[in-house]
Amino acid sequence: ALFRDDTEVCVCVCELFQFRQGKSISKKNKKMWPFWWKGASGFSAHSTAEQVTHGIDGTALTAIITGASSGIGEETTRVLALRGVHVVMAVRNTDSGNQVREKILKDTPQAKIDVMKLDLSSMASVRSFASEFKSLDLPLNLLINNAGIMACPYTLSSDNIELQFATNHLGHFLLTNLLLDTMKKTANESNTEGRIVILSSEGHRYAYREGIRFDKINDEASYNTLQAYGQSKLCNILHATELARQFKEQGVNITVNSLHPGSIMTNLLRYHSFINTLGNAVGKYVLKSSPQGAATTCYAALHPQAKGVSGEYLMDNNISSPNSQGKDTDLAKKLWEFSLSLTGEEEL
């Protein structure tokens, strides 16, 4: 199976040349713009994580970032730590995580960074991480669900669930639920808005026709590597949509948004050699760097413009729009109940 501690994405060849769609925070003047054009936020696909967080003081905040030891997860960790945020790196490989931590500390000696083990494909590991974190009695202002795997051959997780669904969605779903009480307590005691950021992908547009195969999650015969990935990324959007609805209904001072970080060529598509070859040939002209890929995550997590914005799908540091399935509130509720049943969690 293909595991990576980041969710950098190159979905398909056509996306290398697509314009990105966005709309303003006020949802007016919906626009299309190429890589270098700025949206209503004042930022574009070209903006970097440092640029979108320039001048922001995060010293009072604590964040958990999954998949923080490489790629855009590493860059997100570096920039949030640079802005004073206490970052907990939740990673599968703690040796790699500690190497990244030491590298960041060399450039930013005052950075506050901890490394903790988390394997999102294992519910036992997720529960262990959440228990250990809560035992530290730390606040939790920001939860960034960044980690992911992509387009791996059919594999079952340790819990006997298809691996991409288990890792990209279900592990993050369980982690989020287990940490919500801590986030709610932090938001109430600090009178500061909590923020949950869930990394999805434009790959959600290439899911199975029915969107989510509730009755065929583990069906090997009809498994398609990229469509299964798209399904998991659609789940990320619907997770954010339903959680945002519940927070609004409950009056909880926490926002939750999903986002597409941008197309960033990595070895995530090692099983799709043609796309890898073409991407490597033209990617330097049209794909994002890691600092650009981490920008929308950092924007959603720290920027004042994102205050109060919840249940949205962001791209290139601006609000965008998912496909029709990503807007389906009934599908979001069905996914929520399905996920609760698989994790054994009670309703919030």
Automatic annotation (TrEMBL):
Compartments, record wording: Plastid, Chloroplast
Keywords associated with the record: Chloroplast, Plastid
InterPro entries tied to this protein: NAD(P)-bd_dom_sf (IPR036291), SDR_fam (IPR002347), TIC32 (IPR055280)
Xref: PANTHER family: SHORT-CHAIN DEHYDROGENASE TIC 32, CHLOROPLASTIC-LIKE
Protein name: Short-chain dehydrogenase TIC 32, chloroplastic
